[in-house]
Design goal:
Order of helices and strands: HHHHHHHHHHHHHHH
Radius of gyration: 21 Å
Number of strands: 0
Helix content: over 70%
CATH architecture: Up-down Bundle
Strand content: under 5%
Structural class: mainly alpha
Shape: globular
Largest sheet: none
Number of domains: 1
């Protein structure tokens, strides 16, 4: 039996694949198809395909990196070994904020879809109460044990994927593969912004690699689970975006998938999608918390953060301090920010993490052998894709990410001073 200071290695390849899908298919698929269709019209499915191609390149870079590590940390550990502990710590902190912002955005969508059954859910007082229950309920699930958390997440994943896949099949049959009327080709900037939004929707696949210390065979299972998860999600997203673009009235609705289902099946269809949204968002938050808490655990292990964040619960062998810290930050971001704000911060910061990983794998070279070698041109192409999208970001988004980096640098400086004083 592992010592009380170690994490349990219980996750199988199927668990890792389910984790990748669960974190990705959280909330954005229930709102973004309408937003993107409103921006570029019938061209929206093409934007999904462009995002899918770029994300697949990035996923290959992550798979190459994952084939080199059995330890927890994911992007933080890759950046630390490639560029030094300071850069690694900033990437780790930035990605941790990404996960917190994503989770906060997801809970906002959960409450939006809950209003399908209970209109008062969006009222200020009830909204805060629901945030509290969802966020700290997820924390409690994470604390009581890895195997139990993984089992619950698998159930959530199967439920929402089967529901959305069934909706996609119904749409293809009833709409008979219809193609919506195409308007003028969108401007390059509009393409980039639409693709950037879909990058947010795809975000999270890499989070499953952060939990490598709890996987049975992370260097072999991690890369393969990652590629399988991204492929399944890409197919699902393309079909659902086409469905919204081809269904009259769906693109302008607050709940576009729900409106498309209402058009195709009637009110029971809208109800089914609302239930699927609740399942998807409810499953995303504990999954994101599972990954993010292992990131701060890994950073604390290597003294990049206070040692308390690496504390393991004696009974459950989970990093309970890291879990509770993440839950508190998600709660604050959630009750104070909107979906769009959290999504924008998350998407831009995630691109920096992606670019750093692709560049880091090139820098590591053969210093750490990998079980999943990828040609160098793939990493270069992934870097180019990230650079294109970063060039379309706004000054406001850039300043927000810069502020996060500044806070991370101050934490790094303060930690260094404290260590010297303590010594």
């Amino acid at each position: 039996m592992p010592a009380a200071t170690e994490l349990d290695r219980v996750s199988r390849r199927s668990d890792l694949t389910a984790q990748a899908i669960n974190i990705v298919v959280g909330s954005s698929i229930f709102v973004l198809p309408g937003i993107v269709a409103g921006q570029i019209g019938a061209w929206a499915p093409v934007a999904v395909m462009a995002a899918s191609a770029g994300v697949f390149l990035v996923a290959l870079s992550f798979a190459d990196a994952a084939g080199r590590y059995r330890e927890a940390g994911g992007p933080y550990r890759y950046a630390s070994d490639a560029f030094g502990e300071y850069v690694g710590a900033q990437i780790g902190f930035l990605y941790w904020v990404v996960r917190a912002a994503s989770s906060a955005a997801v809970v906002n969508v959960l409450i939006t879809y809950l209003a399908e059954f209970w209109p008062s859910a969006t009222a200020s007082g009830w909204r805060v109460a629901l945030f509290t229950v969802v966020v700290f309920g997820s924390a409690a699930l994470n604390i009581v044990g890895t195997r139990r958390t993984v089992s619950v997440l698998n159930i959530f994943t199967v439920g929402k994927v089967l529901t959305l896949a069934a909706l996609g099949v119904v749409a293809m049959v009833m709409l008979r593969g219809g193609v919506p009327a195409f308007d003028a080709v969108p401007a390059p900037g509009a393409w980039a912004r639409a693709t950037l939004l879909w990058i947010f929707s795809f975000g999270g696949f890499e989070a499953t690699l952060i939990t490598a210390a709890e996987a049975r065979d992370p260097t072999r299972d991690g890369p393969r689970a990652l590629i399988a998860g991204v492929g399944i999600v890409a197919l699902l997203y393309v079909v659902l975006q086409w469905m919204v673009a081809a269904t009259p009235g769906a693109a302008t609705a607050t709940r576009p998938l729900g409106e498309a289902a209402r058009y195709l099946i009637g009110n029971p269809g809208a109800t089914l999608v609302a239930v699927a949204a609740l399942v998807a968002t409810s499953g995303h938050v504990p999954g994101s918390m599972f990954a993010a808490s292992r990131l701060t655990y890994a950073m604390a292990e290597r003294a990049a953060l206070p040692a308390s964040l690496a504390r393991i619960h004696r009974r459950f062998r989970t990093p309970y301090v890291s879990i509770l810290t993440f839950a508190c930050v998600v709660w604050v971001l959630g009750v104070s920010g909107s979906f769009v704000w959290n999504a924008s911060l998350s998407a831009l910061a995630r691109l920096i993490v992606y670019a750093c990983t692709s560049l880091g794998v090139l820098r590591l070279g053969t210093r750490r052998p990998t079980t999943f070698p990828v040609p160098r041109w793939v990493h270069v192409a992934a870097l180019a894709f990230c650079g294109w999208l970063l060039s379309s970001s706004t000054w406001t988004e850039g300043l927000a990410v810069g502020a996060v980096w500044a806070v991370g640098s101050l934490l790094w400086l303060g930690r260094g001073i404290w260590r010297r004083v303590a010594a």
